[in-house]
Amino acid sequence: MLQNNQKEMKLRIAVSLTVIILLFVHHSTAQIRLPAIIKDSMILQRDAKITIWGWSSPKEKILLKFKKRTYSATADPNGTWKIILPPTPAGGPYLLEFSGKNKITLREILFGDVWFCSGQSNMVHQLNIHDVRYAKEIAEANDPQIRQFWIPTLTNLQGPQNDLRTGYWKAAVGEDVRPFSAVAYFFAKKLFEKYHVPVGIINASVGGTPIEAWTSEEGLKDFSSLTATIEKNKDTAYINSFNRLPPANAGKNC
C-alpha cells in the first residue's frame, strides 16, 4: 500500500513538472501574432489614430516600423499588446514591419476610408451570384484601391471573441471581385470615382438574421426573455444536448 502511494505521488510530481515545463516553453517561445484582419493589403482609416494590436510572450517588447519611424509597446502579463499610429493622410502603399522574437512584414498597406458593411441578404449578395446581370462589371473590374475584408459566418454562444479563424483583404481586380458584396462594391466604386481615395470594405453580413443577432448582450438587458435565452445558450451541456438527439425515426421499422 505504501509503495503504491509513493508511486502515485511520484507520478503526480512528474505530471506537474511536465505541465510546468510545457507552460514555460510555450510562454518563452510564443511569437508575435496578429489578428486575422491585420493582414497584407489592408486599408486603414486615413486622418485618424490607428490602434494596431496583437499577441506575443508576456512582457515581450514589440517594435513596429512605419514610414521611417519606430513605435514600441510591451506586452501585458497575458501577452496582449497594442501600438497607436498617428493620423496618416490617404495614400500608400506602405510596409508595416513588426519585430520581437520573430518578424512579420505586412505589404501593400493603404490609408483611405474604411466602411463597415453589415446586414442581411441584400448586403450579402455577391457579384458572383449575379454574374449574368453584372457580367460586364466583373469582366472589367480593375479597382486595386477598392478592397474588401469578408467576415466569415461564425457563431459563439459564450461571448465576443478576440479574433477570427481566418480572413483576407482582396482587391476588386479580375476574378477577386466576385466575392464582393454587390451593394458594397458599387457604393465603394462611386466613392472612389468622386474622391479618388482608397476604399476599404469590412463586410459582416449574414442572410436571414434577426436584429437581435446583431445586438450586444448589454443592448438586450431590458428584454428578460431574450437575456434568459442568452444565459441558457451559454450552458455548453444544454447546447450539446441537441447534438446528441437521435434522428426522429431512429429505431422505427421501415
What is the gyration radius calculated from CA atoms? 25 Å
The level of helicity is 25-40%
β-sheet strand percentage? 25-35%
Kindly, what is the distance between the CA atoms of the first and last residues, rounded to a whole number of angstroms?
Answer: 58 Å
Q: What class, by secondary structure content?
A: alpha/beta
Average per-residue pLDDT, rounded, comes to: 87
What is the count of structural domains? Answer: 2
H and E string:
HEEEEEEEHHEEHEHH
Query: How is the biggest beta sheet arranged?
Result: 8 strands, mixed
Low-confidence stretches: 14-28
Gross morphology: flat
Let me know the number of strands: 10
Tally of individual helices? 6
Word description of this protein:
There is one protein chain. With 254 residues, this protein is of the alpha/beta class. The protein folds into 2 domains: 43-205, no CATH class; 211-242, no CATH class. The protein is built from 6 helices and 10 strands. The protein has helices spanning 2-29, 121-124, 135-140, 182-195, 224-233, 236-243, and strands at 43-45, 50-55, 61-66, 69-74, 80-85, 91-99, 103-119, 142-150, 169-173, 199-205. Strands 1, 3, 4, 6, 7, 8, 9 and 10 form an 8-stranded mixed sheet that branches. The protein is flat. The termini are far apart. 20% of the residues are buried.
